[in-house]
Amino acid sequence: MSFLDKTFQENLELILTKGYKKEDRTGTGTISFPGVMIRHDMSDGYPLLTLRKVPFKSAAIELEGFIKGITSKKWYKERGCNYWNQWCNPQVVPYGTDVDTKKKMEECDDLGEIYGKQWRDFHDVTYPWGGEHKDQLEDVVNTLKSNPNSRRMLCSAWNPLSLEHMALPPCHFAWQVNVTDGKLNLFYYMRSVDFVLGNDLNTYGLLLHLLAKESNLKEGMLVGFFADAHIYLNHIDGIKELLSRNATGKLPTIKTDNFKSIYDWQYSDTILLDYEPLPSVKFNVAV
Questions:
Q1: Quick check: helix, strand or coil at residue 39?
Q2: Residues 11-26: tens digit of each pLDDT
Q3: Engineering a disulfide at 201: which of 16, 47, 64, 267 sits with its beta carbon 3.0 to 4.6 angstroms away?
Q4: Residue 130, exposed/middle/buried by CB under 10 A (0-12, 13-18, 19+)?
Q5: pTM of the prediction?
Q6: What helix, strand, coil percent values describe the chain, rounded to 5?
């Protein structure tokens, strides 16, 4: 079993056996543990769990949308990413869990000031015609190339002035990079994580890969920090199945040919190789 799969199982076991029952926004109910971490060396392979089949394409599409600052649900859906189908800008359709509101939320195309908007155009949304606009991704890329020893290469999706304009307040609210011994390391932070479905190793492993290519560096460590790491009560049967499994295969790898720039990159430019996971386990998303 890969170190990544083993660490994932250990964290699931920790949350399940040592966690605390909590009510939540969705009304589903959770078991939560405060403070979990996953550390992965990219030289061991691409961080895609083999304990169950995890979609690569959808995460790649979503990352392309974040890099381009896309806030249209239609853009994601047309390319085959359905992560955002059930959410929308609460300024257009206020959040609700009743059937009619859920239908309106799904039909609304506007996702508001979500991740990519903050990465590429961080500003005070309450003053759309004034104030400074900051392209955080561009700042990180430029600093990587001009001053790779900097400890200030950080990107935040948590904009307090825009939270009420976001389809969902950012769960992975910040990431940063540093360089050691010619290797790019990436650290990301999650205030809240559905640990089974939303730990985002897939997304940030791909972002690390692209930033390393952009800055002509080798790939180093990927580290995720999770504050409220939780599992939903309706996921417990599936979690027990994952804990019973022994994934003996190696982690897959990825390949990106004809790379010109992270800004020009499209999800289809990167392909997944030698991914041999165990069968899927279905988990419903709590909205």
A1: strand
A2: 999 999 999 999 988 8
A3: 47
A4: exposed
A5: 0.95
A6: 35, 25, 45
